[in-house]
Amino acid sequence: MLIRYLTLLILAIPSRIYAEVSQPGYTPPPPVISIENMLQMAAGLLLVLIVIGAATWLLKRFAIIPTTTSNAIKIISTTSIGQRERIVILEVGDTWLVLGVAPGRVSTLHSMEKISMKPSDDISNKSGNDKFSEHLNQQIGKKYNQS
């Protein structure tokens, strides 16, 4: 019987050696929802919203996406004469309308028959820069000839 107790004692001693010991320097993982993570997520969302807003503004500002028009009314030309004022030439049937467009107001400036866009013989084919430089040279020549 003594041998049985001794065997049991010998078998019990190694079990304490192999037992798992708690780690004294254990730190739990950081929480998933923290202030840094929330700020990073908010900054990313803000950046995406800014990019979407900028892209929308650019598309609207420079009219990159063509607008659909019907065959009845066509915009022939438009030019800006102020920050919000424009002059627009519309083609309605065989008539061109020159319109003044301002915020809250559209007024007809002139109405004329449809003309062809081909350059006529009366109008010289020189560019605006050539015409300006010739005019400037003429005015300079007149000034020096008078003195």
TrEMBL record:
Protein's UniProt keywords contain DNA damage: no
GO annotations of cellular component type: bacterial-type flagellum basal body; plasma membrane
Signal peptide positions on this chain: none
Places the protein is found: Cell membrane; Bacterial flagellum basal body
Keyword Mitochondrion tagged: no
Listed GO biological process terms: bacterial-type flagellum organization
Transmembrane segments: 38-59
InterPro entries, sorted: Flagellar_biosynth_FliO, FliO/MopB
Recorded coiled-coil stretches: none
Keywords: Bacterial flagellum, Cell membrane, Cell projection, Cilium, Flagellum, Membrane, Transmembrane, Transmembrane helix
Main location: membrane
Highest taxon above the source species: Bacteria
Pfam family, one: FliO
Family according to the record: Belongs to the FliO/MopB family.
Protein's UniProt name: Flagellar protein
